[in-house]
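FW: tagging you since you asked about this chain on Friday. Here's the raw sequence from the shared folder, copied in full. Didn't touch anything.
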Amino acid sequence: MAKNVTSCNVVSFVPTTAAPSTDENPMSDRLSQYLAIDIPLIQAPMAGVSTPELAAAVSNAGALGSLGLGASSVARAREAIRRTRALTDRPFNVNLFCHAPPARDAAAEAAWIEVLRPQFARFQAEPPQQLAEIYASFRGHREMLEMLLEERPAVVSFHFGLPDAGAIASLHDRGIMLAATATCLDEARQIRAAGIDMVIAQGIEAVRSERRGLPEQHAGAGAAAQAPS
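HL: got it, structure written out here
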């Protein structure tokens, strides 16, 4: 791990393996060489907001553009990757959510629909007959994995957890670089132990709604403060 952290808006990237660097700005040089980019900056992958046009513009400017695919179906994710690739020949990152899939409870979900029915009635609308999962987890999502192995984006990053070891190995076998978000030092160590190439150190600078529950001793710590020496 490096002592310094190269900032990227609300996150910081710390490569978990060694790369050549210079004395003047070692972390920035390592990051640029690691990702084959000119500017040591990575666009935040904002699910539902980032577009192929934005990702391509960032990559074409010399940094690393990103696609937030956490809310996308396999077909839409593939389309976004191909649209981005048509707009740039530079590397770009795609980001996926790896949260624990929710345990479905039909009775509880039906009860929630009834609780919310009066709110729908206020707008002369009918509630859905059943609830749907908005953000599908990449954990165990074989179809999404197969699509990534076929499309081979330069970088795949994970938020809210990690995929299984088999998925990590398969992505690495296709030459895809991997990154994952850590909100505390223990998570960073788990990411490194899993063989992920880069740790995204996310601290209080980030939007709180995107953070996992942190141990009390880490609450309020910035990304740079959490980065190990």
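FW: The CA atoms of residues 45 and 168 lie 20 Å apart.
HL: agreed, and Strands lie at 6-8, 11-15, 65-68, 92-97, 155-159, 177-182, 198-202.
FW: great, closing this out.
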